[in-house]
């Protein structure tokens, strides 16, 4: 493995890990404060038990997200020093604001976790709300920095020099809004379905059914609403990419030949050497419509882009994109199913209902990771779109592969540990009496 | 605006050293305690730093962000040449953070606690050592900056600067300072019987810091490190160290009289003076290389960037500092009884 591949794998691996924890740490506080609010309103002790057990989850995920985030703030420089040397000052704005938002989150969490019976009830609850809001704000800011890599702005690039730097313009780059919206909804979908799925399994096993049903309803409501809104945001993103990064769009769709009224492929096997997709379902003219809102619009194919500006691994981008869209659609239908089941309550008496939601639990996160693979691998070979190549940004230090192995082992162990801890939390919750 | 940014950089670094330093030190004290006292220290640590420890460690992120936004050239050198110790710091920060939370939030308190405790203690010792080693590497004079890294051998480019006696002693010295800060903090939190324990720890930590500080200077002097030589030539730096040393007397006195606030203020001041001495010795030439030095002010970003960064820091500071102050106050004023 050469240094560049090792660095890319390490970055990908740490991000894949961090995103899961960051999303849960950002979305779960909302579930927690809803349960908390219901406890304050109803004084039903079930809600108190639920709030306290969710808060433990928040604490564990927050810290894992925080330490892996600290690691990332170093890794950006450790792995991509040349990128940070030039990009650092330009995208400093979202990162410094993110630092501030994250700080606020940590302070608010300190108040929340340790404030039981010590702070005034309403203020205590409100600190929980701040945890959630600050978390979402920092998520949006980080995504905005990533948006800048896709849609660089706020500087002039003349003869290899970055001049006229305007950090505010860089923050408000063309991609920030569509990406941040898509990611925020994805975080709510993924976490909502994951948490709801875990509680659904407990109901399926008939443990503390009342508590887990309340928990399920809170989590799935967030997840379902986000999942139903997500296709709209996806459409905005697709149209945006079609305009700004046509080569990424072509890679996502494995669209090789430039044509008017381009069809949309569903499924299929990519043969990059021959430049064709076999075994697919073809919907005529749909790609042109989805990308440009016009059935006869011309969509430029991969064959018409020079080799040095398109990603090497077209198949990966295409499969990841299909995975994301497929799973996203499935979750949208599951969300609709949930809202119908609120009317048709007898569905919830059926064990298979709970089994279904349990099986859906990991899918949101799979879709979310697949989406990041699309946007990151799809941007290659660029680290800053059309400005700097990834290979020119990597650290000159050889042997990154060992550092990659170290992170692989470390985060592998952490994943197992956190999963195990969560199982213990659930076991503890199920064995405890609710007074 | 450059001075605003520099102020926040120094301020964040200082708070990181004092607050996170005391956190690390608490783990070091726990490591060097008997079995019974470990349990005691563990409980006290949780009570004292539980609500604030996460915030304490965010200062390093602020430092890193200010460096990469405001001083990209400096950040670049740090990240390329000191890659290895920085990676080890990250390993330590990660293990320590998760161990701290795991041991307090695991639903069942069983034998796995032994593993969490061990992880917490070991990473509490190792992380500050490597933080110090990294700083030692910056000022060791062994960083070989070259445009031609492909043809430099791995050892002299990426290892020699930090893996040497001088940098290692700086690392131990910093860990000693952390233990010192923690012992002072714990004295203020302990009850009558426990007090004696932490006073003893504080005494040992103080002596250790003095010995290690002496060793750093001695090794640096013998090996003719530019940093140490210019330290001896700088009357302000020496004055600050002497002042810091003299403060031990009122510190002992205030410990005896159980004056919590004054004790902590004095210990904090001592550490600030030591940092200040290091600062006046070689600011603005923060990095000393094999053939000269790097002036941090020459690696600064453009005016526009510094202006925006300064504004962002002022706004961020205005939100964070009152919140943080209130957080610390809330949990110090209200005694948490277990």
Task: Summarize the structure in words.
Chain A is mainly alpha-helical and 435 residues long. Chain A has one domain (3-430). In chain A, 71% of the residues lie in helices and 7% in strands. Chain A has helices spanning 3-42, 45-79, 81-90, 92-114, 121-150, 167-171, 176-204, 209-244, 246-253, 286-292, 314-343, 351-360, 363-377, 400-431; strands at residues 156-158, 161-163, 259-260, 264-271, 276-283, 298-299, 382-384, 388-389. Chain A has a two-stranded antiparallel sheet. Chain A has a two-stranded antiparallel ribbon with strand order 3-6. Chain A has a two-stranded antiparallel ribbon with strand order 4-5. In chain A, β4 (264-271) and β5 form a beta hairpin. In chain A, α2 (45-79) packs parallel to α8 (209-244) and α11 packs antiparallel against α13 (363-377). Chain A is globular. Chain B is built from 14 helices and 2 strands. Chain B has a two-stranded antiparallel ribbon. In chain B, a hairpin with a 2-residue loop joins β1 and β2 (292-294). Mean pLDDT of chain B is 83; it is low at 333-338. Chains A and B meet through α2, α3, α4 and α14 of A and α3, α4, α5, α7 and α14 of B.
Tell me about the biggest sheet of chain B?
A: 2 strands, antiparallel
Overall radius of gyration of chain B: 20 Å
Rg from Cα of chain A: 23 Å
The N- to C-terminal Cα distance of chain B equals: 47 Å
Strand content of chain A: 5-15%
Helix content class of chain A: over 70%
- The total count of helices of chain B amounts to 14
Family (chain B): Belongs to the cytochrome ubiquinol oxidase subunit 2 family.
Transmembrane segments (chain B): 6-29, 50-71, 77-102, 114-139, 159-184, 204-223, 235-253, 265-284, 304-325
GO cellular component, one term (chain B): plasma membrane
GO molecular function (chain B): electron transfer activity; oxidoreductase activity, acting on diphenols and related substances as donors, oxygen as acceptor
């Amino acid at each position: 493995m050469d240094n560049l591949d090792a660095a890319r794998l390490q970055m990908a691996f740490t991000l894949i890990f961090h995103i899961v924890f960051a999303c849960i740490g950002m979305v779960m506080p909302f579930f927690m404060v809803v349960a908390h609010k219901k406890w304050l309103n109803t004084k039903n002790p079930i809600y108190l038990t639920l709030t306290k057990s969710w808060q433990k989850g928040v604490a564990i995920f927050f810290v894992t997200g925080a330490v892996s985030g600290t690691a990332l703030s170093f890794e950006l420089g450790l792995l991509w020093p040349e990128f940070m040397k030039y990009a650092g000052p330009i995208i400093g704005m979202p990162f410094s604001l993110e630092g501030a938002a994250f700080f606020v989150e940590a302070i608010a969490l300190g108040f929340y976790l340790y404030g039981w019976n010590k702070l005034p009830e309403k203020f205590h609850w409100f600190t929980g709300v701040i945890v959630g809001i600050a978390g979402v704000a920092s998520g949006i800011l980080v995504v905005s920095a990533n948006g800048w890599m896709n849609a660089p702005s706020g500087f002039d690039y003349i003869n290899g020099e970055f001049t006229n730097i305007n950090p505010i313009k860089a923050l408000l780059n063309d991609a920030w809004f569509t990406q941040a919206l898509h990611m925020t909804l994805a975080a709510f979908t993924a976490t909502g379905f994951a948490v709801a799925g875990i509680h659904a399994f407990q109901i399926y096993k008939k443990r503390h059914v009342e508590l887990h049903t309340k928990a399920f309803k809170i989590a799935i409501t967030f997840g379902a609403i986000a999942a139903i809104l997500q296709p709209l945001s996806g459409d905005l993103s697709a149209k945006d990419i079609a305009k700004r990064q046509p080569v990424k769009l072509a890679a996502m769709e494995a669209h090789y030949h430039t044509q008017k009224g381009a069809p949309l492929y569903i499924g299929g096997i990519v043969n990059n050497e021959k430049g064709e997709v076999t075994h697919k379902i073809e919907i005529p003219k749909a790609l042109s419509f989805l990308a440009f809102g016009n059935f006869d619009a011309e969509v430029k194919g991969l064959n018409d882009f020079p080799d040095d500006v398109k990603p090497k691994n077209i198949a990966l981008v295409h499969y990841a994109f299909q995975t994301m869209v497929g799973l996203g659609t499935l979750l949208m239908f599951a969300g609709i199913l949930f809202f119908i089941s609120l009317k048709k309550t007898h569905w919830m008496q059926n064990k298979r209902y709970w089994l279904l939601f349990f099986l859906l639990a990991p899918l949101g996160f799979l879709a979310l990771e697949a989406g990041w693979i699309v946007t990151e691998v799809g941007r290659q070979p660029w680290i800053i779109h059309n400005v700097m190549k990834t290979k020119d940004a990597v650290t000159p230090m050889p042997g990154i592969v060992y550092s990659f192995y170290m992170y692989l082992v470390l985060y592998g162990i952490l994943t197992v540990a956190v999963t195990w801890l969560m199982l213990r939390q659930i076991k503890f919750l199920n064995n405890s009496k609710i007074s | 605006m450059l001075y605003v940014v520099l102020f926040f950089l120094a301020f964040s670094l200082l708070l990181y050293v004092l607050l996170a330093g005391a956190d690390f030190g608490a783990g070091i004290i726990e490591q060097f305690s008997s079995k019974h006292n470990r349990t005691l220290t563990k409980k006290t640590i949780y009570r004292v730093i539980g609500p604030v420890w996460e915030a304490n460690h965010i200062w390093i992120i602020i430092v890193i962000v200010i460096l990469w936004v405001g001083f990209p050239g400096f950040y670049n050198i740090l990240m390329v040449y000191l890659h290895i110790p920085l990676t080890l710091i990250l390993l330590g920060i990660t293990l320590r953070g998760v161990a701290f939370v795991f041991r307090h939030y695991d639903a069942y308190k069983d034998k796995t606690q032994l593993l969490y405790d061990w992880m917490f203690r070991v990473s509490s010792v190792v992380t500050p050592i490597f933080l110090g080693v990294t700083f030692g590497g910056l000022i060791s004079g062994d960083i070989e900056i070259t445009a031609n890294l492909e043809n430099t051998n791995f050892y002299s480019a990426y290892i020699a600067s930090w893996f040497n006696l001088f940098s290692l002693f700086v690392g131990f010295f910093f860990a000693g300072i952390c233990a010192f800060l923690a012992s002072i903090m714990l004295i203020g939190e302990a009850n009558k019987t426990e007090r004696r324990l932490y006073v003893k720890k504080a005494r040992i930590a103080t002596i250790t810091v003095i010995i290690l500080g002496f060793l750093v200077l001695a090794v640096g002097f013998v090996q003719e490190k530019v940093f140490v030589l210019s330290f001896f030539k700088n009357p302000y730096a020496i004055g600050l160290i002497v002042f810091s040393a003299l403060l031990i007397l009122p510190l002992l006195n205030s410990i005896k009289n159980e004056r919590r606030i004054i004790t902590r203020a004095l210990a904090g001041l001592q550490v600030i003076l030591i940092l200040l001495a290091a600062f006046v010795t070689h600011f603005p030439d923060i990095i000393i290389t094999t053939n000269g030095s790097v002036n941090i002010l020459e690696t600064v970003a453009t005016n526009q960037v510094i202006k925006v960064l300064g504004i962002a820091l002022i706004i961020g500071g205005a939100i964070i500092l009152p919140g943080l102050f209130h957080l610390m106050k809330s949990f110090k004023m209200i005694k948490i009884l277990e």
